[in-house]
Amino acid sequence: MNAYWAGDIAKIVLPTPFAVGDVNVYLVKGEALSLIDVGPQTAEARKVLELNLAELGYSIQDIEQVILTHHHPDHAGMLDWMPDHIDIIGHPANERWLMRTDDFLEEHDRFYVKLFLQSGLPQEFLHFIHKIRAPLEFMGNRGLTRTVMQGDPIPGMKEWTVLDTPGHAQSHISFWREKDGTMIAGDHILSHISPNPLIEPPEKEGEERPKPQLQYNQSLQGLLQVDINFAYTGHGEEVVDVHSLIHKRLQKQHDRAMHVKELLKNDPQSLFSLCRKLFPSVYRKELGLTLSETQAQIDYLEAGHEISREERDGVLLYYC
User: Fold this and answer.
1) What is the pLDDT of residues 3-23, one digit of tens each?
2) Which of 65, 185, 192, 228 is most buried when burial is the number of CB atoms within 10 A of its CB?
3) Which letter does DSSP use for residue 314 in this model?
């Protein structure tokens, strides 16, 4: 184990069963002993968490509250295994994913079937809908006891403020301490990769779906107005020059979108066709992630009036 205190924050690295690899959770000492994110619901992750807590002089029973950066299973999966007395705090958009009703799961599947058919996905790929649900196997079923949003103080963490940072997830929030410019960024800021802007169903069925890449870019732009000296991240190493990394991420995403625009010149294509061109070696294995990334670039180009679209036999085709 390698957990140690850096002031009042200790980083704990937990294993996950996902391609992203290890996840970082954080123990924060304040008016309440807080755990930022909990890791996936696996026996291995729980064992590593308990060993790290012991090394820091605590046990799971000592934790008074869990605060979620977002609802993804590698960050929120282990909630069921937290003691009953612990408060669970997060953005309201977590709740439908944490307390997954049958109605929500049916709505979830209808949304993705419609999206995939519009993308030109062949019928033989539609079984992939069930794979999109697969990560939810590593989540419990325990909801929030308190919600927080943009600008709210964080209970039990004096001097910390909530920043709404949607994009990677609709529920994503980050935490900022003005006095030293420290940020706990979840998956919004990562040192080694750009987070995938994952497509999610709208809050109410039938509404326009969220456009996570546009949200993510807006969230990043907003952070340029925040004095951030240091960011703890959800995966990998900490980030020191946060604003420089933000500019790099925004430019790289723009360049990627311009590459997609070039692929569409004089050649109208469906989302699935573009996805295969952009990710020829991995789209079959990671269809959800690669379609989300492809849709992200389409949303960006459409927002900038760089491309147009038309519908043919139920399939959306994009061109410029």
Assistant:
1) 889 999 999 999 999 989 999
2) 185
3) T
